[in-house]
Amino acid sequence: xxxxxxxxxxxDSFSLLSKMSRSLEHKNKYRVVITxxxxxxxxxxxxxxxxxxxxxxxxxxxxxxxxxxxxxxDLLREDGSLWIIIGDTRRNYQKLLxxxxxxxxxxxNGGYTFxxxxxxxxxxxxxxxxxxxFAQAYESLLFLSKNKxxxxxMDSIRRLGNEAINLKNKSPxxxxxxxxxxxxxxxxxxxxxxxxxxxxxxxxxxxxxxxSQIAIAYGYDPxxxxxxxxxxFKRHVTRKRVGxxxxxxxxxVCNSKGKNPGNVWEISTKSHHGSEHFAIFxxxxxxxxxxxxxSKGDWVLDPFMGRGTTGIVCANLDRKFCGIDLYxxxxxxxxxxxxxxxxHKRIGHxxxxx
Length: 354
Description:
By secondary structure, the chain is an alpha/beta fold. It has helices at about 15-20, 60-75, 100-110, 160-165, 185-195, 210-215, 285-295, 310-315, 330-354; strands at about 5-10, 30-35, 75-85, 90, 95, 115-120, 140-145, 265, 300, 320-325.
């Protein structure tokens, strides 16, 4: 990524985004918007009267963000998405439901599609000094898309099953791994379904087909392993369920590239770099979003870039970046951080050629 693949601007996000939305250069340009706006009533980052989060009323705060993200919608490509990392605020012994209200307004007033609310669990969260409130161990990550469908790349963020990650199951030999069904026996499958559909919670196990019988009927060698979690297929079969049995048997045949991550992401917070910025979110968090929601060469926009974490990740992953921040010192830090990444990549490239 070259220097001209970055647009780093200093100023008020609403004003600059409004100007960008009137420019053919920026309209429908960005594959994704990733940002973490200042939280309501939390920190002061400077003395500008344009700073978001210092409003006297939470409704005003939410409405300001809605206006900003509605402009972002015009800048997004038709298959683009919006990702907002935002925390809640407590007032008078209650939470204000800031993330939920923001998401609802973006759907109802902005026409966004609400795809997912991801919990960013911060394992190393700071203990609370409150005598009545729980420590805040997570923040909300709102995933919305411009239209019903948007670009995603699940394969880029798949992960091994828990058994493999935690080394509960050793990696089997290549000839012991089966990647899909082979010669399923439809007649046996129908018989198994009939037996199960007629069973009840009191049906003895001996009257039910064994896990090995089920595996073989569905085309899986019971002594072979799943390519993702390394469990034997006979352990993947549910022999007995209480209920309507419509989905019986449950066969957990994992994608060979890994399983879909859940919507709780455990990522530790990032330590401060001296006085670089008050609130740094980890590059691992942004990297996961960028890999999932964009491909190489795509443009990424961050209207509240801070020290430029999104830009740093984009530089590392060969994405193009446009960032905005209200304060000149943050703009300078962001440019310096991105330049450092690009410099290291050039050095590494030259070393590889040699």
